[in-house]
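Task: sequence in, structure out. Protein: Dihydrolipoyl dehydrogenase.
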Amino acid sequence: MHSSSVLSPPNCSLLKRSHRNQIEKLSLAPLKNLPFCGLRNEILAFEFSKLNRCETQRVRNFLRNKIVSASVAENGNAPTSFDYDLVIIGAGVGGHGAALHAVEKGLKTAIIEGDVIGGTCVNRGCVPSKALLAVSGRMRELKNEHHLKALGIQVSGAGYDRQAVADHANNLASKIRNNLTNSLKALGVDILTGVGTITGPQRVKYGKVGFSGSEVTARDIIIATGSVPFVPRGIEVDGKTVITSDHALKLEFVPEWIAIVGSGYIGLEFSDVYTALGSEVTFIEALDQLMPGFDPEISKLAQRILVNPRKIDYHTGVFATKITPAKDGRPVVIELTDAKTKEVKDTLEVDAALIATGRAPFTNGLGLENINVLTQRGFIPVDERMRVVDADGNLVPHLYCIGDANGKMMLAHAASAQGISVVEQVSGRDHVLNHLSIPAACFTHPEISMVGLTEPQAREKAEKEGFEISIAKTSFKANTKALAENEGEGLAKLIYRPDNGEILGVHIFGMHAADLIHEASNAIALGTSIQDIKFAVHAHPTLSEVLDELFKSAKGTTAPLISLEDHLNKALRCNKDRFG
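Result:
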């Protein structure tokens, strides 16, 4: 925990604009509106600019302690000392990432988990699904006689053991879960077992539902409770023939014909698995096209390769308004309703139905009513720094929410990035995460990945802000490594501003697209322009050259010429900064 500050209170002086600016720079802006008048004057009058980093942190700790004391005098609710610097409710990927970073920052940390370490991603999501997709990828290779013949390979009789495939997924999840648990314990993070409930400012109770439990206090609290599968009304899930992704990952059986409701990431990945294992698939999509969340050009190409040649048909522009599980020898019955007219359009009878209509935040039972916080469609409202906003529009002191529970970007690695960002803030360094730099991937065969804006989103932004955009594309058919693998089907697409070289979005469909996207996401995160990234060197022959060619093909951006003298001066400055 933070040590108590021994710094004497700063002297009061006249309130100046410069003092307000200093407060802003130290991320203490919310303190300006506190009702504790004497303390407010102390804060705003202090000459922060005269302090070095270490002294600034000591002042920050002093002020935070003063805030707590003043708050107690005001309402008697907040504690005066704390069991932990940071308590995290939820031990999924987001909570785990935040905990590890908190330990690195020297914070005494506890994590509360009422289920199992790893959350949805490790136990019922990203991790086991990748095990199933690894199997589907191998099966596709072994069954593709034309592809193998082109490589000079002869294979016959490829098959699979369903239970062994299911065991592979389960064993992988167990291994990763144990790794996460051990890493937390090794770093000294206290794992508190039970359901976490906020009982008041900086207070959390944990324990079994229905029991009294134990209460701990924390200087800061992060909510990281994740999400659960969303099941629309009218759909009866029995966990056997009408299932969610939670059930599907157990692979208890492989149906001859399965309907998948929703054609986003989850639905698309499971269609890859089921068709590789021999199932016929029918997509049911409420919007007018499949894969509505992807860039339209990428969706069109993906449909041509991932859907049309496979045993997949689809219904678009319809809702699955009623689904009845199979029973007594009868099949699963699905009622399809036109999305526009709201009239029943058709009825399907299939062996199973997978509900892949997205996910809903898991925020019930958190005790949000104790701190005047109202959810919005289940999501906890936060600002750009993940600070929780109450029902009156005010920030709740020392309370943050990350990951699926806040709805900003429902991806495991986004939750981890948000958690790290929050830890930076509570450690004294302001940080705002750029969500447009966070990549996403769909692990089909071939894969789809993306970062930033789609082309329609970029054009809308350009029209509002008054700039032009340009598009560059390159094909995997021009890449030596892809051709060597006989995997030339694929496209990379760049959306950028020709006036300043800003990268607005990158979309990839092709072999190992999920790995290739990170060069683009890092470029966006670091503000690297097309002019600069064109000079990056890529090993040959590698798939990374797809991105190399993509950036080099961008038109209308002229890289500034840099003289040898400029390079030498820059190198000298860097060495001086490093070594003095």
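Residues 1-48, 65-76, 559-564, 574-580 have pLDDT under 50 and may be disordered.
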